[in-house]
Design brief:
mainly beta; SH3 type barrels; seven-stranded antiparallel β-sheet; 7 strands; 0% helix; 40% strand; globular
Length: 94
């Protein structure tokens, strides 16, 4: 699972957080967990104080915001289907 891969969120907050992005370095690929950052639906957040800290992306026609303060480690088996990579997205909305 390369760094910056986007996966569907399979957890109970999947309506609010439809995707997560893997931020863990590939140096730790043998470990059975992945460090991920939630991608929260933009319309559910209020104003974004610092767009450089919380950039917005459009994934599968859904505007989402990177929410690094909610970083978490999850078992690989809980990652949903791969949907893309942030490294492929060259346009960042602000």
């Amino acid at each position: 699972m390369p760094q910056f891969d986007i996966h569907r969120n399979t957890g109970h907050q999947r309506e609010t957080i439809p995707f997560v992005v893997v931020v863990q370095s590939s140096l730790y690929d043998d470990y059975r967990r992945r460090v991920v950052v939630p991608l929260v639906r933009k319309e559910l957040l209020g104003s974004i104080a610092d767009p450089s800290f919380n950039p917005t992306f459009t994934i599968e026609s859904i505007d989402v915001v990177l929410h690094p303060l909610e970083i978490v480690s999850i078992p690989i088996g809980q990652l949903g289907v791969w949907v893309g990579s942030l490294s492929d997205l060259f346009v960042v909305s602000r």
